[in-house]
Amino acid sequence: MAEARYDVAIVGGSLAGSAAATFFGRAGLKVALLERHPDRSAYKRLCTTVIQASAVPTVRRLGLDGPIEEAGGLRTGLALWTRWGWVRDTLGDGRGYDIRREKLDPMIRELAAATPGVDYLPGRTVRSVLREGGRVAGVGVDTAEGDSQEIRARLVVGADGRSSEVAKLAGVGARTVRHHGRAGYYAYFRNVEMPYPGNAHLWMLEPDVAFAFPHDDGYTILAIMFPKDQAPAFKHDVQANFLAKFQGVPDFPRFDPADQASKVLGLVDYANLWRHRPPPGLAFAGDAAVASDPLFGVGCGWALQEAEWLADATASAFGSDREIDEGVGRYCSTLRSQLAGHFFLISDYSTGRAFNPVEKLTFSAAARDARAAHLVAEFGARTIPARRLLAPGALAHAVRVNLGRGGRSGSAAARENRALLRRRAETGGLPRPVVAEATKP
Which end of the chain has fewer beta carbons closer than 10 Å to its terminal beta carbon, N or C? Predict the structure, then answer.
């Protein structure tokens, strides 16, 4: 059996794995990037492909901002609809990136493969986790040619998705946080007219959720999420029911069913997972570490950030195994401090419930007041910790706004909401007519 030795062996050549390989390679380490797909152009298909503003500094550090924009990727903000009206940030610039995984995955994989010190090894399927003296010391893989190989490394990184094979082979479980209560379906369309161009749009319909995310090359993802118990009836005619769902969404973007550019893809069961602390010599990144409800589009950005945090915590710690383990411990602490609050709130809302009293207070104020809207937008972009949204001062301000003391119910945001609704009513109202018998693309 062939054997190769590295400082770091990363299993999974998607966003988290390729970003981690790039950062480790730039730090002067010898890295094996193992990807089971033999084709470099492979990409994740079930994804809304939003990179939240929180990850933009990581994108820039990787040097991907220029290539993403050259490939047609968009810088988008957030337009959020609740029963109190539209919420948009007029005080900040919390824009992320929207680009299809069809372009993003090969782009970041090529970046990693071109990094000195990184060996990109496609067509490798992990079959075993190797151990030495109680430590994870590498992985055994099968190649696309049918050969077996041992990849020895001082640190193994599982970046192979929420159903991580590395985790299974290493006996590492995951904590499930809250029962996920919604099913979701989406498809790509062209020529979609958005209420607020240049923004990702989200409709909180309590309990349903709809969204429209603009992407490169004129594509837009239209998606709907609804209580999981409706899924069996929905599946009887996915295409027709998908289109029909949008008829009741207030002020939804204009679209023509004939402009549908992909099949309707769906996800019925998607648990919120937090991977347990790994054994010595092993770390997790991306969905293998934290996998949450896709409703809020945090997965891509968090994958990139986790790769950066892992490399920063461990790249200078290869003097001894103890230092590596301490570095992984620092990384796990960073995950908890940066993501745990967001993860819990996302998981709690994923149950399919309506707004709780704090959310009602926060969102109603945000539709009336620029400061409250800015706070909600920063939270939605994951650029502030969850505690900032729930801070006593923020909640007190929301109360004053709703009582008409700290903000004005007739503010510019509220007037704009009413003006938009009037314009849309005058020009034809909601979406173009949707018919159940529309021809499938």
Answer: N
Residue at 222: amino acid letter: L
**pLDDT, tens digit, for every residue of 206-224?**
999 999 999 999 999 999 9
The span from the CA of 403 to the CA of 340, in Å, is 32
Q: Is 397 helix (H, G, I), strand (E, B) or coil?
A: helix
Query: How would CATH label the architecture of 75-96+181-269+355-441?
Result: 2-Layer Sandwich (3.30)
Confidence of residue 418 (pLDDT cuts 50, 70, 90): low
Question: What residues contact residue 440 under an 8 Å CB cut-off, 6+ apart?
Answer: 239, 260
Tell me the domain boundaries of the chain.
2-49+100-177+271-344, 75-96+181-269+355-441
In this predicted model, what pLDDT tens digit does every residue of 251-303 receive, in sequence order? Answer: 888 999 999 999 999 987 788 999 988 999 999 999 999 999 999 999 999 99
Domain 2-49+100-177+271-344 carries which CATH code?
3.50.50.60
Helix (H) or strand (E) holding 4: strand 2-11
